[in-house]
Amino acid sequence: MSVIQRIRDKGAWIVFAIIALALIAFILQDGVGRGGSAFSNTTTIGKVNGQNIERLDFEEKLAMQERMYGAQGAQRDQLIGSLWNQEVERIVLEQEYKKLGLQVSGKELSDILFGPNSPLRQEFTDPNTGEFKVAEAKQAFAQIKKSTNQEQVNMIQKAYIEPTIEQTLRNKYLSLLQQAAYVPKWLVEKQQADNNAIANISYVYFPYAAIADSAVKVTDADISAYLKKHSKEYQKEEETRSISYVTFDAAPKKDDSLNTLNQLMSLKEEFRTTTDIASFLNRAGTELPYYDSYFGKARMQQPNKDSILNTPVGGLYGPYIDGNNYTIARIVGAKQWPDSAKVRHILISTFNPQTNQVLRPDSIAKKLVDSIETAIKGGADFDALCKKYSEDPGSKDKGGVYDYFPQGQMVIPFNDFAFDKAAGSKGVVKTDYGYHYIEVLGQKNFSPAYKIAYLSKPILSSGETISAASTAAAQFASGAKGKKEFDAAAIKGNLQILTAAEIKQNDFSINGIGQSRTLVRWLYENKTGAVSEPVEVGDKYVVAIITAINPAGTLSPSEARPLVEGFVRNEKKAKQILDTKFKGATLEALATAIGSTVQRADSISFSTPFIPGIGSEPKIIGASFNKSLIGKVSAPIAGGTGVFAVKVESNGARQGTMDAETVKQTLLQGNRVAVFRGVQSLKSAAKIKDNRFKFY
């Protein structure tokens, strides 16, 4: 197989994504040409400092990420959000690159693509030596440059060239900022002095915890006043909304479960006696596809597997519950199999299942593999024939070898030959990919393996169950036209009112409810007090009422209360303590007034804002190094955990643990790390128009 084909195989999905997206673009453009589309009259998903993010390009990148990360469990809605953030960051950084004149030259790009850190290493590394095959990689790219296949050229551009350029520019930019970091001598000296400064103090302390929280009421006016003083600390970038909601259960009921069980039992005898299991299961339907081969016990992940495996060959086990299914297991066969096998093979391809493309006629492939078999029997070198003829990129460069692999990893005909034939066996096997000439090189750890068929039926809600829940939800929604009616209807129906807050415009799920883009879209298309029609989410119907619209900017008192109520309460406690408790001019007098004693804290560090036995108290640490308080009692100080009065006994310095150069390098490193936070600052300062809501 050619080197270009190897790249094509690695990234065939990109080509198909491009084709699919081209069709989407055609449809969208057609819609726009006729006066609009199903989504909007624009194809612009957003703007960043005036630069457009176009839907076609966004969808193309999204399709690529779905292919890359979908197998790892990433959901489309998660990828939309992460890709949006990536695109915003890419644009703001590219605008900075342009201002600075940063570029990647052709020679620089070539040095990276074919250098020691090449993104092509995975495709062009000798598996036996670990050597990066630079010549092969260059040859492949040279051929691609001459290619008239624009899809192939686009694939290489998107998969390798553009990411390499973006990463190189990013590295240059961050390196430029990091190298610009500077720490002056005076700052090093001050940091050394701060690190080494110590103080000894005496103090009295009345903790806030001594006053019950229930004794101090925090009103919305108190919260608002606090937010006004600390507005910059409690900002949010985008609007959020809150709802109250009730649910109506449409999950399967007892009768639904019994119906499924009866359906399964009606098929049990035929399942027991059929001689064509695959056809029977295909006709009867099953949630667990029939795997027409063997698995050892360790590879099985079925519930009740010990009981299933104790069933004799030909016997049935069940029905039993497997997740949301009723299942019957039939032991079709049992034999001794290894748990892993090692083979080498030569593949003559007939079909590519990934692209649904016929590669050569079956008859021609069969003649070629038969000729290879004959040649090997006559003494021909397997490695040489493999290198010349095999079209399996996963093993061709390793002499066709697949080192020890577990049961079930390969397609069934290949798998069965490797595990069922004795070590040393050779032969031709037909699979969906083509014809394989296989030699079994080794097998390990023989133990019982089983072929098991599963007749599995899902426990589904009946039409009556779904209709009952839907009708109840519709009746509730029709009678609940406002908050008062909503609450009254919930009480009358004995329904629990639940809440969900901080719902953003581009969210796809709601905490407590689950995936429901439909409900989120409705939420942002209506006003406070609106009641939704029933929305089906999983196995329930949801009726929601919009309880709050929280604009971007400073948090509202209701939003901020969970965050700041404790601080506000402590402020009110501090005022109460100061007004009623702290009386006196000396520490001893103050201690008597509050019913406490004078306490001592020695060797307090300026660089560590903690009071032993109390905790973090930055204000008290600051006062401890106030030279005007040496030998004097401070005014009462409202700290983080209580009210203090402090007398500084002495200030001094301990022996330094870090020399000036170490301090300088520590400060420099902190500045360089801060560079990465600077990227977020660029995004925060950018003028961003987000139109995702119109499209998703």
Automatic annotation (TrEMBL):
<feature type="transmembrane region" description="Helical">
    <location>
        <begin position="12"/>
        <end position="28"/>
    </location>
</feature>
<keyword id="KW-0812">Transmembrane</keyword>
<keyword id="KW-1003">Cell membrane</keyword>
<keyword id="KW-0697">Rotamase</keyword>
<dbReference type="Pfam" id="PF13616">
    <property type="entry name" value="Rotamase_3"/>
</dbReference>
<keyword id="KW-0143">Chaperone</keyword>
<dbReference type="Pfam" id="PF13623">
    <property type="entry name" value="SurA_N_2"/>
</dbReference>
<dbReference type="GO" id="GO:0005886">
    <property type="term" value="C:plasma membrane"/>
</dbReference>
<comment type="similarity">
    <text>Belongs to the PpiD chaperone family.</text>
</comment>
<dbReference type="InterPro" id="IPR000297">
    <property type="entry name" value="PPIase_PpiC"/>
</dbReference>
<dbReference type="InterPro" id="IPR027304">
    <property type="entry name" value="Trigger_fact/SurA_dom_sf"/>
</dbReference>
<protein>
    <recommendedName>
        <fullName>Periplasmic chaperone PpiD</fullName>
    </recommendedName>
</protein>
<dbReference type="InterPro" id="IPR052029">
    <property type="entry name" value="PpiD_chaperone"/>
</dbReference>
<keyword id="KW-0997">Cell inner membrane</keyword>
<dbReference type="InterPro" id="IPR046357">
    <property type="entry name" value="PPIase_dom_sf"/>
</dbReference>
<keyword id="KW-0472">Membrane</keyword>
<keyword id="KW-0413">Isomerase</keyword>
<feature type="domain" description="PpiC">
    <location>
        <begin position="338"/>
        <end position="442"/>
    </location>
</feature>
<dbReference type="GO" id="GO:0003755">
    <property type="term" value="F:peptidyl-prolyl cis-trans isomerase activity"/>
</dbReference>
<keyword id="KW-1133">Transmembrane helix</keyword>
